[in-house]
């Protein structure tokens, strides 16, 4: 009876080992995991680029708004100085004559 039990135990271990994935299946799984990892990396890179582009656009818009405010403030200061007769008004520029 002990011999029969030992034979059945060894046969079941061999059957369990034989039921595992084959080398081809393992290679295919590894290839699919590699493709998935590459896709994930590309998605993360695309999201990082989009975020950087968005931040750059926001910075540019802020700089443009600040430049417009500064130009308006300079114009107002100039007009105030002219009104107080601290400086003379700017002369109008004549267009340049074309040569013959």
Would you summarize the structure shown here?
With about 100 residues, this protein is mainly α. The chain is about 80% helix and about 0% strand. It is rod-shaped.
Structure explained in plain terms:
This protein has 100 residues and is mostly helical. The protein is built from 2 helices and no strands. The model has no long low-confidence stretch (mean pLDDT 89).
List keywords for this structure.
single chain; 100 residues; mainly alpha
Q: Helices and strands, in N-to-C order?
A: HH
Classify the helix fraction into a percent range.
over 70%
Q: Total number of helical segments?
A: 2
Rounded to the nearest angstrom, the radius of gyration is 40 Å
Instruction: Tell me the β content.
Output: under 5%
Please state the average pLDDT score: 89
Amino- and carboxy-terminal Cα gap: 123 Å
Largest sheet: none
Category from helices, strands and their pairing = mainly alpha
Say how many strands there are. 0
Low-confidence residue ranges: none
Shape: rod-shaped
């Amino acid at each position: 009876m002990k011999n029969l039990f030992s034979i059945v135990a060894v046969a079941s271990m061999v059957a369990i080992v034989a039921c595992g994935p084959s080398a081809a299946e393992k290679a295919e799984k590894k290839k699919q995991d590699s493709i998935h990892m590459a896709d994930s990396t590309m998605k993360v890179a695309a999201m990082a680029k989009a975020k950087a582009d968005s931040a750059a656009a926001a910075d540019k818009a802020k700089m443009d708004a600040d430049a417009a405010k500064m130009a308006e403030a300079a114009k107002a200061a100039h007009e105030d100085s002219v009104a107080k007769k601290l400086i003379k008004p700017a002369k109008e520029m004549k267009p340049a004559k074309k040569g013959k």
